[in-house]
Design brief:
The structure holds two protein chains of two kinds. Chain A is 49% helix and 6% strand. Chain A is mainly alpha-helical. Chain A has a three-stranded antiparallel β-sheet with strand order 2-4-3. Chain B is mainly alpha-helical. Chain B has ten helices and one strand; from the N terminus they run αααααβααααα. The chains are: A mainly alpha, B mainly alpha. Chains A and B meet through helix 1, helix 2, helix 3, strand 1 and helix 4 of A and helix 1, helix 3, helix 4, strand 1 and helix 7 of B.
Chain lengths: 213, 215
Amino acid sequence: MKPMSRLNCGSVESLVALYVEGDLRDADRLRVEKHLTSCAGCGALLLELQESQAAFKALRQGVVNSGALSEVRARVLKDVGDLDPAPAWAIAVHRLIFAGLRHRTAIAGVAVGALLLGGVWLGLPHRGAQPSPDPDSPAAIAVVNEPSFHSEWTEERTLAKPVKTAKPRKRRATVNPPDDRIAAQTNSVQFPIKFVTDDPNIIIYWLPSDKGD
Amino acid sequence: MSTHPNTSLLMDQAALWMSRTPHEGRAASELKKLIMLAVSGNSQAFEQIVVRHERRVLTLSWRLLGSIEDAQDAAQEVFLRTFKYLHRFDVQKPFEPWLVRLTVNVCRDIGRKRAERGLVFVETEKEFHRDDRGAANSDPFSELQSEEQRRMLYQAMAMLPEKERAAFVLRDIEGLSTGETAEALGTTEATIRSQISSARLKMRKAIAKSTGGRP
C-alpha cells in the first residue's frame, strides 16, 4: 500500500474531515496521523475543521420556542381526535403475519415462499395434461413443418448451409408436431431436426442418418 | 498537535453510557407501557408520547428543513403517522430511532414538494432561541456574535445538497453515530462517511469565505 505521506494533500482532505470526529477506522487513522506529522498544510486544515465542528456543536443548544411546540401539539391532538385507532383485528393480523419481523424481511419471505410453491406446482404432473412423448421416439424431436423444407434435403445440403435466417422472436428450441404428408415422404429415411438458438437470426438444422449419428 | 479527537469522543461515549443508568431504563419501560396503551386506543397515553418527543421531532425537522412553518407541518405529519402506524412498531426495539427515521422520511417528502414549488432551504431565526440554561452568563455582545455566527452556519448548511445536509445534521448537529445516521437515512455507513466528509469540507470553506479567511 502506498504510504499516506506520499499522497497529495487533496486526497487526504476527505480523510482529515472524518478524522476530526473520529469517524475513521484504526488503520486509516494511523495513516492520517502519520501524514499530519509531516504536512503543515493538512495540520492547519485539521485545526480549522476542529473549530468549525465546535461551532456546529454549539448549534445543538438552539431550541424551538414553547409557542411553536404547543401549536404543533394542539394540531396533532386535534387531528388524532378525528381519527380512529387501528382496529384490534388489524393489529392482531399484523402481528400474526409479521411476527416481529421487519416488513421487508417478511415480504421477501412471502415472495420466496410463493416462488418455491410455484416451482413445485409447475414440476408436478397435471391431471388432464397431455402425456409427455416417448423421448426415444424420433417424432418427438423431429421438426418437419418448415414451409421451405422438402424431401430433397440431403445431408450434403445441410452441411453446405447449416445456418438459415430464423423466424423472429423465437428464443428456445421448439419441437413441433410432424406434418403427416412430409413425414410420409421422408418415412424413416431422414428426420431433420431444427434447433432454434437464443439468437433469433441463427437456426441450426441437423439431418441425422438412420443410425442416429 | 492538538489532542486526539477520539479522546473527546470516548469521553462523550462514557458520559452517554453513564447516563443510561436505571433512570433511562425506567423511562424506556414507561415509554413501552405508553406505546402499548396508545395502541390499544388510549388517547392520553398517545398525548404523553407526543409531549415526550415533540421537541426532538420539531427541532430535527427545523434543522432538516430550515423553516419553522415547514418544521411544524412536518412534526404534525410525523405524529399523525406515529398514531397510524404505532401498532407496527416492535416495542422490544428503541423508539427514538424509529421516530427519527419517520421524521427524516416526512422531511424528505416535504423538502421534495417544496423543491417542486421552487422554494429553498430558509431559516427563520425568530422562532428559535438559545437554550436559557446556557444563556445566563453571556453578555449581549457575545450573544449577538453567536446569533450572527449561527445565522452564517445555517446559511452555509442551506447550500449543501439534500442528502449531505441530512447526514450532516444527524451526525454533527444531532450527534447520532455514523451507524445510527445510516440507519435513519436508509443507507450504508460508507455512504454516510462520504457524505459527512464532503459536507464538513464544504461547510469549512463556506465559513472561511464568510469570515474572510482562506476558502
